[in-house]
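Late entry, written up from scratch paper. The run itself happened at the end of the previous shift, but nothing got recorded in the book at the time, so transcribing now.
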Amino acid sequence: MRNIVLNIPHSSINGVYDKNFGKWQCNPYFMDDCLKKWTDWYTDMLFNPLSRKENVETIVFPYSRFVCDVEKLKNDPLENIGQGIIYTEFDGYKRNLTEEQKKNIMELWEEHQANLQTAIKDENTVLIDCHSFPSYLANNDICIGYNEDWSYNKKLVDGIVKKFKKQGYSVEENIPYSNSITPEKNFSYCSVMIEVNKRIYMNENLMVLEKNARQWMRWSGTLEKIYDFIQNF
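Output as recorded:
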């Protein structure tokens, strides 16, 4: 049985206005333009299986991506526009940090990477990069993202796509996003990203979960089938 590691990096809004390392302007415009739109709301709940499945470990980053984006790499090209690991500018909003504060934030990044590295125990591990996306970005319900490198496994990707489609979800590969996080290890393992269109599980205007029980039964049943497939493919 394969191990599954669920990486959930963007579900939190903690720390955004913290005076020590958040430092964003506390105003409703930043909330509407940035925080509400680009937080992966409820994904810490959405991707957790209902049953107590063995060999599934969840790593949730406890702070907002606007504090530290643990998906980004060191020397990321987006640093040129202030959107590397430590955002300093986003959609016209700016954040002023001292070098000491940046050092403390980088320690959060290092800790998350270390947690993932510890959870990825061997070659039989499958890392699932768990995200959601705003509905205006794409029409598909599900996006399956992957890298064009050693972490890609066609059988894995095809199987996940098939399971979602069988349950009636529309699926695209690498649309609207591609790639999946691959923390450094001294062996190869599989990594795949699952992005969920926010419209299928929440009201994007009110920022609340949908209350359709049948919809939730469909989602949880699909997720169970996908995790069973991943652990045994």
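The beta strands are 3-8, 56-60, 89-90, 93-94, 125-133, 142-145, 171-173, 190-197, 202-203, 208-209.
(Scratch paper discarded after transcription.)
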